[in-house]
Each structure stands twice: as structure tokens, then as C-alpha cells.
Write a structure and sequence with these properties.
Number of strands: 13
Distance between the termini: 48 Å
Shape: globular
Strand order of the largest sheet: 5-2-1-6-9
Helix content: 40-55%
Strand content: 5-15%
Radius of gyration: 23 Å
Structural class: alpha/beta
Number of helices: 21
Length: 494
């Protein structure tokens, strides 16, 4: 990293080049109204940008306090620069830079869990939002229920005021508000979970009921959990990205975020204690988000995962690299085509235009979104992204060959050995279980596919469906025989 002598901060915003956008409001007048759990790149490039727009429009009581559940890295990078950071919007035509001021403070939950609970219980906090990834909810993705045996859940039930998990923090704070006679905050999930608001409500109320049935009932009756759909591609920030942003700013930003021009946020308009003027910042407020959520999960996320697993196996480092191969571009389009018939959208929704926009976004050469990054946590993502669409197609008696190849790509990936025999750094809560199954089965599709399909936490009863088992086993056999690149070419040329 280059060592610029000046660090981005409140005192030197006026020294930024004129082309750099900066907060269009007096930050000293902003007070916190939101606690956000999961202070990662996605939140900082998506929800925090929307809140920044809301603050500029006059909603000064909606600043954000961010909480990292485990790692201090983000706090340590942003605290010395007054929690200001840059969003670099990259397109083929060039990059636009914007400094975001919506984040007022950050905490690390594991350092002082009781302090975070206290902050969430403050009556000034009216929304607790989350981007903790699918695995952060301590649930079983196939059922949407709380995993009562999850180590963090077991810990939190025995340490009520020093939780580790997102559900544990939410329940601890809501319990304190109830004891103090305060209204509950709204729980606003911004992760890719099926029916995310309803799912998080179920998880939280199940957790609360394990503490007290009355608490569980109070949360179920009085707390709003609106469902949402979020969409923006946010790659991991590299040192080269930091250098480029520092050059543009003329000063150092320790942790900028990279993203694309496209952004979308669809939110059910159900809030317990008010909300910012989201509509003025471009948020789509609806009564039912489910059609939009399924559209995104089954068109964008499913094709993204297919490109990630099969593209990685074929040797492509980024999604844009993968899309330069016309066979993989066709693969992404076919995943969307297979999924589109499972959707029922509101009148006026242009699915063809949406699919075309996705293909263009995936091919953005300025966005270096690594296949390895998207491949993380597949056990949590597959049920929502791929398996639901496969199940609906099977109900309609339709073929599932393209989705099956994507699932087979995941299976080949989680063996932790690529096509050249090199180790794959598999990041997944069930990585050890998958590796053990792969060692026992060996590189034989007829043994490996049934073994992985038998993992209840991922596939549930769908893993025993004969048509799915046959399609996935056949696809995995083709991957072992021909390799990913040739298998994709064969599929899309059929």
C-alpha cells in the first residue's frame, strides 16, 4: 500500500479534489437511529449509501452505529478516520468516488457484548439491521428454523447478557427494552435468506421462547420484521484498490469499498418505530417483497453461484473473466431461463430486461469479483439459490440439467481439490464434513453425489428425489470425465 501522509477524516474533507462527492449535510448534527450488525463491505456499499442520501434529505436522527460480531478489522481501519470511507463505483467508462458519512461509530461485539446490548436497547435506536451472511443466523437453511444445537446458540442461552450470535444480541436487547417498558425496534434483515423477514422472525422468536415463552410471544406480537430484497455486487477490497482510491483522494483511506453502478433495495413498509424517508433515496417500498426476492435469488444469485463454482474449476479468477468465455455466458443465461418459469411476478415486471441487465453486470470488466469469494458458504446458499428452483421445475415435470450442473460444480468444489489436484481453500461451516465425505467416496460421481445429497442440512428431503439424484450424479460424472470447461460447452451446445 502507498503511504500517503494524510489520512481521510473529518478535518480534511475540504482538501478532497472537487470531483469527489462528500457528505451533503452537517455530520455533527446527526444522531444514531440504527444499529447495524455485520459491518462488512456489502452494508457499506448498499444500505449505508441509502442512509447517507436520507441524511442529506434531512433525516438527521438516522445515523448508523455499526457492529462487527467478531473481527475488529473494520473498526480498526475506520475509527482513525472518523468512520468516513469511500465508495468507488466502477464501470467500463471509469470510476466515481463518494465519501460516505452515515456511519457514526463502530463496535466489536465480542470485545464488549454487554455494551452492544445496551446500545441496541437505547430508545433512540429504532431499527436494528443485519448483513451477517446466511450462516450468521444459526439456523438450518432447509427448514428456516433455529439450530438449537449451534454452539453460539448454546452459549447465548447460558450467557444471556454476553451473547455471540446475531439472534442472541437481538433477543437480549429486546428483552431489556421490554423490561424497561420501551417499544421494540424494527429488525431489518438485508441478507439473502428466503422470505428473510419471516425467517428471521421465526429464528428470533424461537430463540426468545427458549429463554421465556412470554418473551417469545411479546416479540412475535409487537416487533416488525419486514422482508427485503437487496442487490448490489460488492467485490472484496484489495490492496491495489486501496492504492487506487488513495491516489484519487490524494489521501489514504484504509478500507474503501468497490461496487458497481447498479443498486436496488426493495422493502416491505412495516416498521415498529418509524423509518427514514427511504422512498426519497430510491428504495422501493412494497406490501410484499417475496416476488422480487425470488426473482433475485433464482436469477441473479443462482447464475452467480453457477459461474462461481464452474468458473473456478475452469480456472477463471473473476466473474468478468468467466463471462468472456461465451459458453459460460450462455450457462448464466440458461440458469436464468430455467428459473424464470418458476416465478410469478407483479404485472409490469420485465423479466427479460432484468436478465439482460444481469448478464451485462456480470461482464463488467472494471468489477473484479472473484469466483472464490462468491463460492463461500455454499451449504447456506444452495437451498435458496438453486434447490428451490429445481424443486419447482421438478413439480412441473421440467428438466433440471443446467441447475444440476451448477450443483455438481459445487460438489466438485467442496472436495477441496481442483481439476489439477491443487488444494481449494473451501470456506463453509460444513467444510470439514464435506471433506470427510469426499475422502470416503473418492472422485467417483456415483459415490460422491449420493453422499453429499444425503447431507440433511443442505438438501433436506429433496436429496432423496430420484430425478434430482440422477441429474446431479450424471452432471458430476461429466465434470470428472471432461472437466468444467468442456462440460459447460457440452451442456450449452446441446
Amino acid at each position: 500500500m502507498r503511504h500517503n501522509s494524510t489520512r481521510l477524516g473529518r478535518a480534511n474533507l475540504d482538501r478532497l479534489p472537487p470531483a469527489i462527492r462528500r457528505p451533503a449535510y452537517d455530520r455533527s448534527r446527526v444522531t444514531p437511529g440504527i444499529v447495524h450488525l455485520g459491518l462488512g463491505a456489502f452494508h457499506r456499499a448498499h444500505q449505508a449509501v441509502v442512509i447517507d442520501d436520507c441524511l442529506a434529505a434531512g433525516s438527521s436522527s438516522w445515523g448508523i452505529v455499526g457492529a462487527s460480531l467478531r473481527s475488529p478489522d473494520t473498526r480498526d481501519a475506520l475509527a482513525p478516520q472518523d468512520h468516513l470511507y469511500t465508495v468507488a463505483v466502477r464501470a467500463a467508462e471509469g470510476t466515481e468516488h463518494r465519501v460516505i458519512g452515515a456511519l457514526l461509530d463502530s463496535v466489536v461485539a465480542r470485545e464488549k457484548p454487554a455494551a452492544l446490548v445496551e446500545r441496541m436497547a437505547d430508545p433512540a435506536i429504532r431499527i436494528v439491521s443485519l448483513t451477517v451472511t446466511e450462516k450468521g443466523y444459526c439456523h438450518t437453511p432447509q427448514t428456516g428454523d433455529l439450530d438449537e444445537r449451534h454452539p453460539d446458540v448454546v452459549h447465548d442461552l447460558n450467557n444471556l447478557d454476553a451473547p455471540r450470535s446475531a439472534p442472541g444480541f437481538i433477543v437480549a436487547a429486546l428483552a431489556r427494552r421490554r423490561a424497561q417498558g420501551l417499544a421494540p425496534f424494527t429488525v431489518l434483515c438485508c441478507d439473502n435468506l428466503a422470505a428473510n423477514g419471516h425467517t428471521v422472525q421465526r429464528i428470533v422468536t424461537q430463540f426468545a421462547a427458549l429463554r421465556s415463552k412470554d418473551l417469545g410471544k411479546w416479540i412475535a406480537d409487537s416487533t416488525a420484521f419486514p422482508s427485503t430484497m437487496v442487490d448490489r455486487i460488492v467485490p472484496e477490497t484489495t490492496d491495489a484498490d486501496r492504492d487506487a482510491v488513495s491516489d484519487a483522494l490524494g489521501m489514504r483511506d484504509a478500507w474503501p469499498v468497490m461496487t458497481e453502478p447498479f443498486t436496488q433495495w426493495v422493502v416491505e413498509d412495516r416498521f415498529t418505530a418509524g423509518r427514514p424517508d427511504f422512498a426519497a433515496a430510491g428504495v422501493e417500498l412494497v406490501t410484499d417483497v417475496k416476488p422480487f426476492e425470488l426473482m433475485k435469488l433464482r436469477l441473479l444469485n443462482a447464475s452467480h453461484s453457477a459461474l462461481a463454482y464452474l468458473g473456478y474449476l475452469a480456472g477463471y479468477e473473476t466473474i468478468a473473466d468467466t463471462m468472456l468465455d461465451p459458453h459460460f455466458a450462455r450457462l448464466a443465461a440458461q440458469v436464468m431461463e430455467e428459473a424464470a418459469v418458476t416465478l410469478t411476478m407483479p404485472v409490469g415486471t420485465d423479466l427479460a430486461a432484468y436478465r439482460a441487465s444481469l448478464l451485462k453486470r456480470f461482464a463488467n470488466p472494471a468489477l473484479h469479483h472473484r469466483t472464490w469469494q462468491i463460492a463461500m458458504d455454499g451449504s447456506q446458499k444452495l437451498p435458496q439459490r438453486l434447490l428451490g428452483g429445481m424443486q419447482d421445475r421438478l413439480r412441473k415435470g421440467l428438466p433440471i440439467a443446467t441447475h444440476a450442473l451448477a450443483v455438481a460444480g459445487w460438489m466438485r468444489y467442496v472436495t477441496a481439490r481442483d481439476e489439477q489436484g491443487r488444494a481449494i481453500d473451501v470456506r463453509d461451516p460444513l467444510a470439514a464434513e464435506f471433506a470427510a465425505l469426499a475422502r470416503e467416496a473418492g472422485p467417483v460421481a456415483e459415490r460422491l453425489a449420493p453422499a453429499l445429497l444425503g447431507v440433511e442440512k443442505v438438501f433436506g428431503p429433496l436429496g432423496t428425489e430420484p430425478r434430482l439424484r440422477e441429474a446431479v450424479t450424471t452432471a458430476l460424472g461429466r465434470l470428472y470425465k471432461d472437466g468444467a470447461r468442456r462440460a459447460v460447452e457440452t451442456l450449452v451446445s446441446a
